[in-house]
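User: I'm new to structure prediction. If I give you an amino acid sequence, what do you actually give back? Let's try with this one:
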Amino acid sequence: MTRVGVVVFPGSNCEYDAQAALRELGADVDLVWHTATDLSAYDHLVLPGGFAHGDYLRPGAIARFSPVMSAIADFAAGGGPVLGICNGFQVLTEAGLLPGALQKNRGLTFISEPTTLVVASTRSVLTRRARVGQELVVPINHFSGAYTCDDDTLQRLLEGDQVVLRYRENPNGSRDDIAGVSNEGGNVVGLMPHPERAMSTLVGSADGRVLLEGFLGLEISAARG
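Assistant: Good question. You get back a string of structure tokens that encode the predicted 3D arrangement of the chain. For your 225 residues, that looks like this:
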């Protein structure tokens, strides 16, 4: 059975959602406190949403110094799959494991609503079971979710096929409509939307399963709901 570590920082608040979603897909999931330094027991790692260390200074700026981050960097360098969702995405950019940064939304408003994503690349552990151009309805819930980077970084992302998801209708002012990016190897991915909250049509959408099944390396289920 696939073992997943969901890394918990002081202020994380989506760890149980992520744990429940991954368990539903058959994974063995542990919550891992941010002081951990040995992640060798895990096949996949997830950094969930929330407000790590209260988002003091800026989101992820303090969490990047947690002891677990060195272990995450080593895990990623060895090709291990790492997923950062919302605040987890912010932490990964602050730690230099993903390019770019997340800044306050256009209009300085907190946004919590379903949004339509367009799969831009399948060259990542998150989107490998999706199709380029496929549209997925996944909720967002953030204040500092506008992706930004300089011109050179954007060019490298485009040339490396590292933009994995875009918003169909940009809700927050992200550059180039970017909702998620990967590292050069495709094994580290961050996105602002919450796939763990889109696991069933009973709550509006089951499209998050496409992404999380891909992340776990599962075959896409024939029926979702």
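You can read the tokens as a compact description of the fold. Here is one thing that stands out. The mean pLDDT is 95.
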